[in-house]
Write a structure and sequence with these properties.
The protein is an alpha/beta fold and about 140 residues long. The protein has five helices and five strands, in the order E-H-E-H-E-H-E-H-E-H. Helices cover about 40% and strands about 20% of the residues.
Length: about 140
């Protein structure tokens, strides 16, 4: 399976996503901020990153920009988590160089499906310098 890096300062989110993705056979690393995420990225051959948009030390947008500024990671797929209802963050995520964004809350089935789809399509990721338009958006579930 894949090496996945999760970046989120909310430990409960990290633990839940780690559990779900590990159960699917992925090796999952967890970072509590963007700086720690950059360290993991240098130390491991990460194949997918899922980062929260809102973090204090280095937010997800700064983290993604650091990744995209390094040509070595130009084709690395990055998904961004945003909070449902925060329209300004959703719009900013749509304009950022991420491959897709996920609105929380997110259920396990959705997470597994999106990760699988992103990993299947990861070699189609545009190189650094090309505008990357988010490829999908998850809408809230209706019960």
């Amino acid at each position: 399976m894949a090496l996945i890096l999760l970046v989120d300062e909310a430990r409960v989110n990290l633990r839940v996503m780690h559990y779900v993705l590990s159960r699917e056979g992925h090796e999952v690393f967890m970072a509590e901020n963007g700086l720690e995420g950059l360290r993991y990225l240098k130390e491991h051959k990460i194949e997918l990153i899922i980062t929260e948009a809102n973090m204090r030390l280095m937010d997800g947008f700064e983290f993604v920009q650091h990744i995209r500024d390094n040509h070595q990671y130009g084709r690395l797929p990055v998904l961004m988590l945003t909070t449902m209802g925060d329209e300004a963050i959703v719009q900013r995520a749509k304009q950022s160089p991420v491959n897709g964004f996920l609105t929380q809350p997110l259920n396990s089935r959705q997470l597994i499906e999106i990760v699988a789809r992103t990993l299947r399509n990861r070699f189609q990721t545009r190189p650094l310098g090309a505008k990357i338009v988010p490829t999908f958006e998850i809408q809230p579930l209706s019960y």
